[in-house]
Amino acid sequence: MHSTTLALRIALTVGAALAVASACPAAITLDGDFDEGSLKSYSVSGRNISLVGRDTYAGSGHYLGDGYWRWLYFKASGVQGALPTFSISRDFAGDATPGPHELTDHEMVYSYDGVDWQFFDNNSLGATNYTFSNSTAFSQDEVYVAYALPYSYGQSVAHAQSVLATPWASPTNSGNANGVIGQSPAGVDDLGRNIPALDLYAYRISNPATDGAPKRRAMLTTGQHASETLGVRTLEGLVDWLVSDDPRAAALRDRAEFFVYPMLNASGRYAGLSRAMLEAPNTDSNGFWNPTKWQNRTEQRILGEAMLADIDPSPSNGLDLALDFHSSVPDYMIAGPNGEGTGGRDDWGYLKTSQGDHLDPFWQALRALQPNVLQVSSGGGSNTTIGFAQNYLYADIDITFENQFAISRPPSYYHDLGENFGLAMYEAWVQVAAPVAGDFDEDGEVDAADLAAWQAGFGVAGGEHWQGDANADGTVDGSDFLIWQRQQGQSAITAAVPEPQSFALAVALVAGILGNTAAANWRRQRRRSLHEA
């Protein structure tokens, strides 16, 4: 009896101790020592967490200022059930734009898994600090916090490898079998962290079966400024569409080739820098795109020399288009009638309007598909990525595209925007004005590619013409196949839609084709000149 009472007392004592311990919140700790992480220091006082951001260390004509932060990304531990308020100095780098402060409209983001991100509920710019917090407590012990939707170096590697695993992507001439064109130099960053040498990737997207014909040529780049992650997400959306099964993407691959450099500043991204590279931390890396300037900048030289070798440019065989994806803090001087945000601000493209680039069919198609996109005239610095594309890669049209921070959009927005970039190229370079009914990819030919489009869309309700709906009845079925069959071999000249044969015959033909798996991959080579369409 006595031993039972003692055991009960011990159990009650231990239980009470555990209850007291659980009632006391765990100490909150912060860590920014990981891929793309960036935090100089912090202090915790009750529910208030004061953050110190890293100096931007970017000069060379784009001086942002020591003591001013821009990129912030860290992991907080011990926050389950807590309602902390984070604060950081309002000394935001590059805040020289007339009008409201760049943080006025900004919302920080958080994630429990580093994949799915949400915006903080409360974001406020005070006289000395910028603060952010949530209205409900964190539901897990660890949470990632960032200035904007992150996109780490590791994510870029994983995406490049997944693209290279598709039939439509291959290493460039300068790369090895894995698509690696070289490595950034290892080093120590301004926080004393060891940054390893990092693989640099490049790849070419096209249909290898049509490589014997002349093709449009485009170069796609991003990541020059390490913290401008929204541009990286837009490039991802474009690339994902280019290698997709969309018949329009397939038709574009037949007529165009894309040279993609998805990490122009791998070292800066991994180290959590803003505009600088690890090897040259005091300069803006986008001012050294010139063979005479990059000799002492290993990572930039590897990338530039790879572009020259991969594209093998000449005045008669340069790029049709060069796109460099960035992100920008709000520019209150740029306004438009259809934008989101104060004064109509939104995403925009810098174009050389003095050369008529804004009249290019691609840009016109993009703005029709994405009406919120604004355009800004630009002289285009000769030592920028785009200047290099024009001066050394003979690009006809070169555009720096800016996704604006401080507009709180989900990741899907950037993915969809990237897809519209691809569709704009398709509309400008491939699509004909009056395709016949059986020309589902609308490239001016009724051929095996259209059969593949019909097969992919078979059974779709509410289908569109590009999905295989030849008779515009909203359904992709056997009658649409019969129209394709009768028009096979026709050109872009509009023809009358023939009456379908009997339903029984249509069913038999459809069953036969769908049962032949080889037909899904059947694609006749096209040998058309670059401008025939």
Description:
Helix 7 packs across helix 9 and helix 11 crosses helix 12. Helices cover 27% and strands 18% of the residues. The chain contains 12 helices and 22 strands. 46% of the residues are buried. The chain has 533 residues and is α+β, with helices and mostly antiparallel strands.
Question: Layout of helices and strands, plus pairs?
Answer:
Elements: H1 2-23, E1 29-31, E2 41-45, E3 48-52, E4 73-77, E5 85-89, E6 109-111, E7 118-119, E8 122-125, E9 129-133, E10 142-146, H2 153-164, E11 169-171, E12 180-184, E13 187-188, E14 194-195, E15 198-201, E16 203-205, E17 216-222, H3 229-242, H4 247-255, E18 256-261, H5 266-271, H6 298-311, E19 321-328, E20 348-351, H7 361-369, E21 374-377, H8 385-392, E22 397-404, H9 411-429, H10 448-457, H11 478-487, H12 503-514
Parallel strand pairs: 3-5, 17-18, 17-19, 19-22, 20-21
Antiparallel strand pairs: 1-4, 2-3, 4-10, 5-9, 6-7, 6-10, 8-9, 11-16, 12-15, 13-14, 16-18, 20-22
Main beta-sheet strand count, sense and barrel state = 8 strands, mixed
- In terms of quaternary structure, the protein is single chain
Per the principal axes of the C-alpha atoms, what is the gross shape? globular
Helix content: 25-40%
Radius of gyration of CA atoms, rounded to a whole number: 27 Å
What is the strand tally? 22
Average of pLDDT: 85
Q: pLDDT below 50 for ≥5 consecutive residues: which ranges?
A: 1-24, 494-533
Strand order in the sheet with the most strands: 11-16-18-17-19-22-20-21
Structural class: alpha+beta
- What is the first-to-last residue Cα distance? 96 Å
Beta percentage is: 15-25%
Count of helical stretches: 12
